[in-house]
Amino acid sequence: MSYQRMNGNSQGAGVRFAMIESTxxxxxxxxxxxxxxxxxxxxxxxxVEYLCLRYDLTFGADxxxxxxxxxxxxxxRVVINGEVxxxxxxxxxxxxxxxxxxxxxxxxxxxxRAYEAMPADVKIREGYIGIPLxxxxxxxxxxxxxxxEWKAAAGAITSGSLQWWLKFNTATQKKTTVVPATSFxxxxxxxxxxxxxxxxxxxxxxGILVQNDSADDQLGSQGIRINSLGDYGLEVEMWRWLNSDxxxxxxxxxxxxxTTQQTYETKLDGALLIPTxxxxxxxxxxxxxxxxATTRTYTPIITAVVGSSDMDTVRxxxxxxxxxxxxxxxxxxx
Length: 334
Hints:
Elements: E1 15-23, E2 35-43, E3 46-59, E4 73-80, E5 83-89, H1 102-109, E6 113-116, E7 124-137, E8 142-150, E9 157-169, E10 174-178, E11 182-186, E12 190-195, E13 204-211, E14 219-226, H2 236-242, E15 250-252, E16 263-265, E17 271-280, E18 284-290, E19 294-305, E20 315-316, H3 326-332
Antiparallel strand pairs: 1-9, 2-8, 3-7, 3-9, 4-5, 4-8, 6-7, 10-19, 11-19, 12-18, 13-17, 13-19, 14-18, 15-16, 17-20
């Protein structure tokens, strides 16, 4: 269902909310076979802090007994007015995974909000996936193209709804772009990885999401070194100390454990959000000590002052107390 009256704008309005799409078509929802949901939406302009997916789904059987629906997102791509602003692909995870998934881990680490209401009936799932954008869309009609690839659920969908919301906020300071990942096939050795950073996306790289192809870190004692940040590799647990995962920094829904509260986790094996302190200007060179032959993806998170339009030469622009990508940097200071 498309919503009319999209010709206005939300400029100068402080915080405002708009539901821009709603569907009850079960073919768009996760079910017991992998499927794809594509939608094109016309929406009003304004400074968009979040794009939010609200889901309220009923299944014939528990769709993911020990985790939440965001675990079932295999990929999601958001294009606004022809510009790719969010491009995520999951490295691993399935309906039988336990705890946090890679997508909610990413979003909750970079200032997004991906949470699920704890279900009284595990076959009924309600949740919210807030994607931080910081996009200043022009007055008039703006076009959103969204593609979601769902993994197979453990039960078939019977009914439900999917809604897309915009949160406009004129006080939004940063634009956040999750750009396509660099994939690298590792041998069991220390190897150089060049993480590609698009030159047509303004801003600095505030973090890199590293995903293995299984729920296992498979990193050696030299861990991961970012050449621009020092001469030494940091072990995986040191990175988790820096990004605050280690201090119960991950919240996850596990209905098998509790239907009244979320659970804390200190790590998500196979996934790691590395703070990069605002590296800018080009590709980022890593040294990765892989303890096994495997394939990893490296997803840069680029942040910029709203309205930024150009890139710079490769250099570090950010110290730990600064405010580029506020959430990522703040987590390193805890």
